[in-house]
Each structure stands twice: as structure tokens, then as C-alpha cells.
């Protein structure tokens, strides 16, 4: 977690890492070169206001937090991501169970079709 007296660059980097983005990925998303983003994160230069707003949106943090710092919103982002991940895992588990059930039903249907085909074939041969 960042200290409340962190710099703009440290807050950008912290939010980027919390989102799991590489320098190149974030730079591409906001339309700058990775070197430019690196300069922002190292406090060599600062982003223009339009890029700051873009950073805020992509990183999921308030622009005012990027500018002024304070209590980091990253914990809330991480908490939300945890619940989203848990929800996806739950859906995946349900889907896997459905898949297993569908596989079982498919096998039962194929077996029943084969049994009926054999019965019909046997009846046909018996009638000859």
C-alpha cells in the first residue's frame, strides 16, 4: 500500500500494477509511448489533463486521487476484482457440471438410439 504522501508517478505505477497491466499495455491504451509513461511514473514529466483523465478511467481510480493522493482506492479495486473472479469461478464450476451432465445425457441418448436400432433391425429380420 502507498503512503499518503506518495508522488503522482508512484500513484500511477501503483494503480497500473494493481490492475495487472504492464507499462507497454497501459501506454498503448492511453495512446503514448512506453517511455513517456515511464517518465510519468518516475516523476520526470507529468501527463496532460486529457491523459490524466484517460489514466483515471483505465486504472479505475478517481482523477483527484492521481493528482492529490490520499487514501488509496486500490484496495476497493482489488476487493472488487476478487469478487468478480470468485463469481467467474462459480460460473465456471456450474458450466463444468452442466458439461458433465450433457456428456452423460449424450451417452444415454446414443445408447438408447443404438438399442432401438438393434430392436428395429431384429424385428425386420424376424418378419422376413
TrEMBL record:
Source superkingdom: Bacteria
Family annotation (CDD domains): HTH_XRE (cd00093)
GO MF term list: DNA binding
InterPro entries: Cro/C1-type_HTH, Lambda_DNA-bd_dom_sf, Rad_response_metalloprotease
UniProt-listed Pfam families: HTH_3
Segments crossing the lipid bilayer: none
Residue stretches making up the HTH cro/C1-type domain: 12-66
Protein name, entry field: Helix-turn-helix protein
Organism whose genome encodes this protein: Aestuariispira insulae
